[in-house]
Design goal:
heterodimer, A: 110 residues, mainly beta, 6-stranded mixed β-sheet, 5-stranded antiparallel β-sheet, 11 strands, B: 111 residues, 7-stranded mixed β-sheet, 0% helix, globular
Chain lengths: 110, 111
């Protein structure tokens, strides 16, 4: 099976930076996704990493180390609207399935 | 703009009832998925489909079946609903890029 771990909860202050770590042990690897999910809503795509390194997209960045089975999502200049659950998902096989971690709930305080 | 829709946002059913959850996507995607989402467990794959009339079991298929008669529509069926099937059900679709687009979810309560 696939094993994907991420912290359950994180709290940070508006304007600060938060880093959400994700470690994975999977039978294969084709890429890693990060999704954002606000309470009661559908998950929405944030980023995709397939090669080692950092991908930056505005206030959000995602990093991948394939050799370490590790990724992180970096949220900068936190805003109240960033309060949400962040899901790490790995594409481990060549059949387009994704295996999800349990999600990290980020709470941004004023 | 890509769109995945689900037939109901909230549904309340009784134990033993047959339940149909419908999902429609307008992106001409080949792949469609059904997940359930429970606190602390994340998204767990129930069934998926690569093409019309094709289906594959996911990680937790017991108690569920699916139907895909048309490319745009993927239905999840609970043959005899039980209380442990109370959950949030999410449908998703994807093409060959593996990025999945999700519907808004159906919160099902089985009494």
């Amino acid at each position: 099976g696939q094993n994907i771990d991420q912290p359950t909860e994180m709290t940070a202050t508006e304007g600060a930076i938060v880093q959400i770590n994700c470690t994975y042990q999977t039978s294969g690897f084709n890429g890693l996704f990060w999704y954002q999910q606000h309470a009661g809503e559908a998950p929405t795509f944030l980023s995709y990493n397939v090669l080692d390194g950092l991908e930056e997209k505005g206030r959000f960045s995602s990093f991948l180390s394939r050799s370490k089975g590790y990724s992180y999502l970096l949220l900068k200049e936190l805003q109240m609207k960033d309060s949400a659950s962040y899901l790490c998902a790995v594409s481990a096989t060549y059949d387009y399935k994704l295996s999800f971690g349990a999600g990290t709930t980020v709470t941004v305080r004023a | 703009d890509v769109k995945v829709t689900q037939s109901s946002r909230y549904l309340v059913k009784r134990t033993g009832e047959k339940v149909f959850l419908e999902c429609v996507q307008d992106m001409d995607h080949e792949n469609m998925f059904w997940y359930r989402q429970d606190p602390g467990l994340g998204l767990r794959l129930i069934y998926f489909s690569y093409d019309v009339k094709m289906k594959e079991k996911g990680d937790i298929p017991e108690g569920y079946s699916v139907s895909r008669e048309k490319k745009e529509r993927f239905s999840l069926i609970l043959e005899s609903a039980s209380t442990n099937q109370t959950s949030m059900y999410l449908c998703a679709s994807s093409s060959t890029t593996a990025e999945q687009f999700f519907g808004p979810g159906t919160r099902l309560t089985v009494l």
